[in-house]
Design a protein that fits this description.
With 130 residues, the chain is of the alpha+beta class. It is built from 5 helices and 5 strands; from the N terminus they run E-E-E-E-E-H-H-H-H-H.
Length: 130
């Protein structure tokens, strides 16, 4: 469950900066995305928005933006394994009241295609977990 709300500022045509830390708590862990973190809300191609909706929840579906920011952060900094990061993403979407079917589709998408950004982040800093 999120202990804080997402507060961002728009930077440019693709990126947003967190104005305050974003805290998410699982049953066993707590993750804090620090203020100043820059995100693109999950790199979800716009043509998929028709199915899952935009991260802000405007129009189609619940706002999954905080879950996408958390997932980006977990991937970028390798704080968990990829599988755990993907599971936390799914769990976080459900905590935001995203429809279960919609959350499942997004979880399945990151399980199938998330290997590419995961490996890209590991190449930037090989000391990060794989």
């Amino acid at each position: 469950m999120f202990a804080t709300t997402l507060k961002t500022e728009y930077i440019d045509g693709k990126f947003w900066r967190l104005l305050d830390g974003l805290i998410y708590k699982t049953n066993t862990s707590e993750f804090t995305v620090p203020d100043g973190y820059v995100t693109d809300f999950g790199t979800i191609p716009r043509f998929f928005w028709r199915l899952v909706g935009p991260p802000t929840g405007c129009g189609n579906g619940a706002a999954y933006g905080p879950a996408a920011v958390l997932h980006d952060y977990l991937y970028e900094y390798g704080l968990t394994s990829r599988a755990v990061a993907d599971h936390i993403f799914y769990e976080a979407m459900l905590s935001l009241n995203v429809d279960r079917w919609r959350a499942w589709i997004m979880w399945k998408a990151v399980r199938l295609a998330g290997w590419y950004p995961w490996k890209r982040y590991r190449k930037k800093d090989p000391s990060k977990k794989v």
